[in-house]
Design a protein that fits this description.
It is built from six helices and 30 strands. With 521 residues, the chain is mainly beta. The longest helix has 12 residues.
């Protein structure tokens, strides 16, 4: 999560609050223009969708959420607040620090388990109780790890216990020995060096402190007891009887000790091998002589496991093990919900609106709040409260309907503010800036329209047909619907089927043809 600095500007007499991460302006949607013969909008809900809900009218409820950073405990009796404060109900609150109104009025931060909800820089965070940690960096499930008892996060997140010849445990935030590997013991009582003693000597025969002498001068390592001599095919090595076929200290011959870098050795059929690798290491080349040679935290070709090359996603973690966090991020699909989107912009609640300009604003704000992406589009699939979206990184541009109508006259902010004509206008506007295309408006107020341009490194324009799209989702057939939630689903499935994260559009359409933009990871 990234902090964002507030900024405010005035356009057409209206105060438009925003953040550096996303140029947020109050949405002021109207119905799309359906007058064109070659660009048709089906905003009346013709045809069934995955949502099972008729399309909304596109009328703004007037409850757009301000994003100005603000302060608490001042009564807003006249509806006004001092500089830096915004009224949420009857109070002036600080959206930057108020956990009940974090980033927007009514956005209450979830406390999760074992923690206290806090709001920092208009972003929900969790303050953990002593002995607990938010190790997955998700505020939703709070401080999910008990750092007093979890070996992988002992005392603090990411501090894994690894002890020689032992299974590690964790108690009171310190590494302990849960159990010793067979044939080893913690004879010095010091947990920090693990089970340091091999229990195959006359001093420690089968257990710490058991000494062999007198009539039983040798240690039978197979039985773990003192003996008068070696039996059952064992070999006497010094004062011990050992099975050279399986003894790691005498593997194949007396004194031939097996060792494994970053792991635990084994002796099998008189040959040394790897029994197990330590945390974050692996034997990816299958060669026992160099042990567990691969660091799965830092090797991009074996990231998290042998042969694994994961993509970088927006999560504050170095997913691809190249030493850099969240770099190269372009786009990702997110399984969200109307409940989450409503917290960003109330009119997009899945009831009054499931698809439209208010949901454009809610999705854009949701994605921008993730820190890596700058905006997003969708819903690309929706059913009941579920709303799947695609977050992406590009250029947020504050423009005007006057400028957009210069690229396609029907998108003039009067006849149409949101719809297929504005899709075309925004696409042409962004293409003129060197981008692959664009979507929006992600925010709008008066003549102002905020759009998101997708760079050519992320977006790829693809010409297809409504026949091809309807094969993926039947209602998007170019007759019942040419633009709308069904076509959102069809286009996203079309792009995903070509190996992309998803896609948006149609950014242009004419007769049987539809031009879409697919986005890459």
């Amino acid at each position: 999560m990234r902090s964002r600095s507030p900024w405010v500007h005035t356009i057409g007499g209206a105060i438009i609050a925003s953040t550096l991460a996303r140029c947020a302006v109050a949405t002021e949607p109207t119905r799309p223009d359906a007058s064109r013969s070659d660009v048709r909008s089906v905003m009346d809900g013709a045809g069934e969708t995955d949502t099972g809900v008729a399309l909304d009218s596109g009328v703004d409820t007037g409850t757009s959420q301000p994003d100005v950073v603000i302060a608490r405990d001042v009564t807003a009796s006249d509806g006004s607040c001092p500089l830096g404060l915004v009224a949420c109900g009857a109070q002036c609150v600080n959206l930057a620090v108020d956990p009940a109104n974090c980033g927007s009025c009514g956005n209450r931060c979830p406390a999760g388990v074992n923690g206290t909800a806090v709001c920092e820089s208009a972003t929900c965070e969790t303050m953990c109780r002593p002995g607990f940690g938010n190790c997955d960096r998700s505020a939703a499930n709070g401080c999910e790890v008990d750092t007093n008892t979890t070996p992988a996060h002992c005392g603090m997140c990411g501090r894994a216990c690894s002890l020689a010849n032992a299974t590690a445990g964790c108690a009171a935030g310190g590494c302990t020995i849960a159990s010793c590997n067979p044939g080893f013991g913690n004879c010095d009582g010091n947990a920090s060096n693990g089970c340091e003693t091999a229990l195959n000597s006359v001093s420690n025969c089968g257990m710490c402190g058991r000494a062999c002498s007198g009539a039983t001068p040798v240690c039978d390592t197979r039985m773990g007891v003192c003996s008068s001599g070696c039996v059952g095919g064992q070999t006497r090595c010094g004062m011990s009887c050992v099975d050279t076929g399986s003894d790691v200290s005498n593997c194949g011959a007396c004194g031939r000790m097996c060792t494994v870098a970053n792991g635990t050795p084994r002796c099998e059929a008189s040959a040394c091998g790897v029994l197990a690798c330590g945390p974050n290491f692996a034997n990816c080349d299958g060669n026992a002589s160099n042990g567990c040679e691969t660091n799965t935290r830092t090797d991009p070709n074996n990231c998290g496991g042998c042969g694994s090359r994961p993509m970088e996603v927006c999560n504050g973690v170095d997913d691809n093990c190249n030493g850099t966090v969240d770099e190269g991020y372009r786009a990702e699909g997110i399984a969200s919900s109307y409940t989450a989107l409503r917290a960003q912009h109330a009119p997009c609640d899945g009831s009054g609106e499931r698809f439209g300009p208010n949901c454009n604003a809610a999705i854009s704000r949701f994605c921008a709040a993730r820190g890596c992406s700058t905006s997003g589009f969708g819903p690309v699939e929706n059913f009941n409260d579920a709303a799947s979206i695609v977050c992406t990184k590009g250029e947020v541009v504050v423009t005007t309907y006057t400028a957009l109508s210069g690229h396609h006259p029907p998108c003039d902010g009067v006849g149409e503010r949101f719809g297929p004509n504005c899709n075309a206008a925004i696409h042409r506007f962004c293409a003129a800036r060197g981008a692959a295309g664009g979507f929006g408006p992600i925010e709008n107020s008066g003549d102002t329209a905020v759009v998101h341009c997708v760079p050519s490194t992320t977006g790829t324009g693809v010409m297809t047909t409504y026949a091809a799209l309807s094969a993926l989702h039947a209602p998007c057939d170019g007759a019942g619907e040419r633009f709308g939630p069904n076509c959102n689903a069809a286009i996203n499935r079309f792009c995903a089927g070509r190996g992309f994260v998803g896609g948006f559009g149609p950014v242009e359409n004419d007769g049987p043809n539809a031009f879409v933009v697919c986005v890459s990871r």
